[in-house]
User: Fold this.
Amino acid sequence: MTETLEDILADDYLGDVAALPMEQVRARRATCKEIETGLSFLRRLVQGRLDVVAAERARRTEGGDGDDLEDLIARLPQLLAGSTRSEGMGRLPSSLGTGVVDHELQYELDGVISDSRLGEPGSLTDTELETASHALVQFEQKVSGLRRTLFDRIDALEEELTRRYKSGEASVDSLLT
Assistant:
């Protein structure tokens, strides 16, 4: 059985972690990391959409041409580069892939504003842009909260692994075989 984000978020997910077999502790840690990587990727998507919405709002405030899609495309590298480093927990990613992206969260993000709608920002009303901006901020906060919970799970699993190695219950030699 593959664990889902919902499984990991359950209050009893860790249960009596000290009673779990070593392989299960490692497997749970790996699953948590994979799902956290997916949440990290999803958060970057949200931040990118926020950047595009903010740029369109700024363009309108400055009186730019809403039909100039080439201008938006030309500015995308600069817009999206602003989201490469954000405030946060400061943890380095354990992998550079997309991880496991929760489909329900992806659908929720697309419900806020889809790529196709965002691809034509000039067609959005000021109200739609403002609504999307607020909804994206809220969604980013939700995803960040989920990531913090996953980090707590990962930390608990890693603490258990460390405890086992320090106490001699587990051997580093077992990792080499």
